Amino acid sequence: MDERVREHAEVLVDWSARVDPGEHVVVSVAEDAHDLGVAVAEALGERGATVTTLYGSDEVSRAYLKGAEAGAEGGTPDFDEDSAVDLAIFEAADVYLRLGGGRNTAATADVDRETRQAYTRARKGVREARMDTDWVSTVHPTRSLAQQAGMAHEEYEDFVYDAILRDWEALAEEMAHMKEVLDDGDEVRIVTERADAPDTDLRMSIAGRTAVNSAASVAYDSHNLPSGEVFTAPYDAEGEVLFDVPMTIESTRVRNVRLVFEGGEVVDFAAEAGEDALASVLETDPGASRLGELGIGMNRGIDRFTDSILFDEKMGDTVHLALGRAYDACLPDGESGNESAVHVDMISDVSAESTMSVDGEVVQRDGTFRWEDGFEG
Amino acid sequence: MDERVREHAEVLVDWSARVDPGEHVVVSVAEDAHDLGVAVAEALGERGATVTTLYGSDEVSRAYLKGAEAGAEGGTPDFDEDSAVDLAIFEAADVYLRLGGGRNTAATADVDRETRQAYTRARKGVREARMDTDWVSTVHPTRSLAQQAGMAHEEYEDFVYDAILRDWEALAEEMAHMKEVLDDGDEVRIVTERADAPDTDLRMSIAGRTAVNSAASVAYDSHNLPSGEVFTAPYDAEGEVLFDVPMTIESTRVRNVRLVFEGGEVVDFAAEAGEDALASVLETDPGASRLGELGIGMNRGIDRFTDSILFDEKMGDTVHLALGRAYDACLPDGESGNESAVHVDMISDVSAESTMSVDGEVVQRDGTFRWEDGFEG
Questions:
Q1: Which of these three, B108, B130, B164, is where a domain ends?
Q2: Taking a contact as any Cβ pair under 8 Å apart, which residues of chain A between 304 and 333 contact chain B?
Q3: Which of A153, A212, A276, B282 has its CB surrounded by the most CB atoms within 10 Å?
Q4: Which residues of A touch B118 (CB under 8 A)?
Q5: Which of B55, B68, B79 comes nearest A54 by C-beta?
Q6: Considering only residues 341 to 360 of chain A, which have any Cβ-Cβ distance to chain B shorter than 8 Å?
């Protein structure tokens, strides 16, 4: 086994999930994430945790949903509300580790949107119980993900481990600057002015919200490995935004998404590709038309877009917004933010002709932050 | 996908587990049982059940146990009693389907016996909760199992599907004869007299016990697919028995096991190969030295030994005994039989120079039953 697989497992268990002896850990192993599953199980055994392994197979999920469609004989399947077993799992678990890495990123492409939405809606309680654990999502560098990224397998392995096996403590210190600016601010404005694309000019309120220094550890309210972003929960968005980084939503390739916000809500939308998938997201529930997240990518170890949100949204010189659910960590105690069954991130490249301002003061220009060398105020 | 995989899934879900709409089904998918997992998920979706998939990987189990050994620094690991997550899963589940078929039947060979025993002991409650579900164990015909059987992969697929895709209703009727004899009987005696092997002469009481017509369905208290045996829970065994069918116990090849019983308990044992593995089983707990099962193989669709207990013990012309736990279905209501953390089956070929008698009357001679053509009384 590649020694980096073991290092990945150790970062995940110790830095990210902070697993203690006696904790109950649920590990979901995707179809081709077996080697990482083995390394994680070994680390958990050594630390005296218990482990339960789920099989996180997209092909199994697809088969179940297609079977349900067949059973519904043309109608939309009626799914059991919050399967008792799945609910019991996450209510009993202390930690949930999701090891992504299937065999085909388009494995569920032929499942009806209505079926998918009905299934997502029926599992709200399961999702909430899962998010109440110390959960962390990561991926094993599989051939399928390499293909999605347009990279050779070994090249992709290097890319993934470069992004994951980092000095997380140092990055956390650096990201603390950005968190401070967002915590102190009331309004964020993002502007891009390019010859080759429509303008972005979006304002949103962040007053009273707390930014998360997402340093790939539950100790920082951060649940992705890799991470390297600072995010908060905006509201009352007004204006237009273009997401020019291509991505895959619901197994559909989506490019150049344009959203128009009024009073915090999407009132118009378009996409050069994948507009149906976007429409499907927006239709899920009322919260799917409102923002749940503003994130600023700060992981300069990620050097290219790979059509994987886990990596793309963390890349330096990008900002992203998510439609749907807001994370509790960004909200005042006891206050609920935007609620939705979905959380769909979309990304803008801000490396050129771009500014992000907080309360009228420029924080990032053309990708360079105020506290970095070369910043032009 | 081979159409027989779908047929296997349908027999499992409909005939074996009798899954009803709304039931909560937990499916454990072994490393190479993916295709069967997909077919089972589709069938469950169609029938309106919920599904939770566990990853039943021996390599993950081994890694966890080896990690625990490393954490114990030379001592025997101290495992958490009945992991809360695993207990919650089986307490919430209505049905448990185990799809075997890993990549290496010796995957856990280098785990210390003490570690294994400690882990088994710590999971008694989980095991009991699992056995309280409508559980069924089956296998997908993997290359690893083909190798274990000494067969080519396609040849092995034919073997497995011939054993599984049967007229179970017809076999159930045939096996009802044997059940009647055992239910009415008080004592079973098995005798073999061969030139090339030590004699078997074993008597055991079955008074008050109920035999199970194991027709591969929970409706018959039968939990294996394939099945095709009639079994009961004997006690007070006296005498000697030779198990001449080779098998694998705890990843160890075991051959020609000889057990001597006095007062129901093993007082002496030997094996031509794998004696240590046998000793390890016997040491697990007091119940491991007593019988939990007498089974009579009646599936004549299984035409050879393949070093897999799931198939070997069902083969016609064999009887088997298990050390350890007795099945509740064989016991009077509220009465407990032999209790143990283990249940280890061992098989004798009774095709020649052999008789099985119940209350002094011969029921099977040289493999032929009293009600079959060619029986010599």
A1: B164
A2: none
A3: A212
A4: none
A5: B55
A6: none
Residue B375 lies in a domain: no
- Give the pLDDT confidence of B227-257 residue by residue, as tens digits: 999 999 999 999 999 999 998 887 788 999 9
Round to whole Å and give the CA distance between A232 and A213: 9
C-alpha–C-alpha distance, residues A71 and B49, integer Å:
10
B108-153 pLDDT, tens per residue?
A: 989 998 999 899 999 999 999 999 999 999 999 999 999 999 999 9
| Residue B85 CA: distances (Å) to CA of A27, A49, A358, B122 | 11, 12, 45, 14
Which one of B22, B52, B67 has the shortest CB-CB distance to A41? B67
pLDDT surpassing 70 at residue B196? no
- Amino acid A252: pLDDT: 86
Examine residue B139 and state whether it is found in any structural domain, yes or no: yes
Mean pLDDT of A185-210: 90
Position A331, amino acid: L
Nearest CA in chain A to B103: A34
Place of tokens 């009693």: B81
Q: Is A222 part of a structural domain of the chain?
A: yes
Q: Do A66 and B42 touch (CB under 8 A)?
A: yes
Tell me the average pLDDT across B167-176: 94
Q: What is the pLDDT of residues A62-74, one digit of tens each?
A: 999 999 999 999 8
- Do B153 and B187 lie in one domain? The reply is no
User: How many pairs of residues across A and B have Cβ atoms under 8 Å apart?
Assistant: 160
Give the distance from CA A302 to its chain's centroid. Answer: 15
- Among B253, B249, B245, smallest CA distance to B200 is for B245
User: How far is CA B96 from each of CA B17, B18, B26, B28, B100, rounded to the nearest angstrom?
Assistant: 8, 11, 5, 8, 13
Q: Are A98 and A28 in contact (CB under 8 A)?
A: yes
Predicted pLDDT at B197: 64
Total Cβ atoms within 10 A of residue B297: 27
Are B70 and B101 contained in the same domain? yes
The residue assigned the tokens 């502007």 is: A191
Q: Closest by alpha carbon to A28, among A163, A147, A139, A159?
A: A139
C-alpha distance from residue A359 to each of A193, A203, A207, A236 (Å)? 20, 10, 10, 15
Beta pairing partners, A200 = A192
- A243 shares a domain with A361: yes
Alpha-carbon Rg for chain B, nearest whole angstrom, is 20
**A8 CB burial (10 A radius; 0-12, 13-18, 19+):** buried
Count the domains in chain B: 2
Could you report the per-residue pLDDT of A98-125, keeping only the tens digit for each?
Answer: 999 999 988 998 999 899 989 999 999 9
* Together in a domain, A184 and A93: no
Residue type for position B43: A
Same domain, A320 and A333: yes
- Residue B230 sits in the same domain as residue B353: yes
Average pLDDT (A250-269) is 93
Q: Please indicate, yes or no, if residue A277 is contained in any of the structural domains.
A: yes
Instruction: Report d(CA B348, CA A367) in Å as an integer.
Output: 76
Range(s) of the domain holding residue B291:
168-369
Provide the pLDDT for residue B80: 87
Q: Name the average pLDDT for chain A.
A: 94
List chain A residues with CB under 8 Å of B60.
29, 34, 37-38, 41, 51, 53
The CATH number for A154's domain is 3.40.1830.10
Helices (H) and strands (E) in chain A, counts: 11, 18
Read off the pLDDT of residues B19-44 as tens digits, 9 standing for 90 and up. 999 999 999 999 999 999 999 999 99
What does the pLDDT read at residue B38?
98
Mutation test of the interface with chain B: which of A1, A25, A64, A86, choosing the one with the most B Cβ atoms within 10 A?
A: A64
Contacts of B72 (CB under 8 A, 6+ apart): B78
Last residue of a domain, one of A164, A188, A216: A164
Statement to judge: residues A95 and A202 lie in one domain: no
Give the pLDDT of residue A197.
64
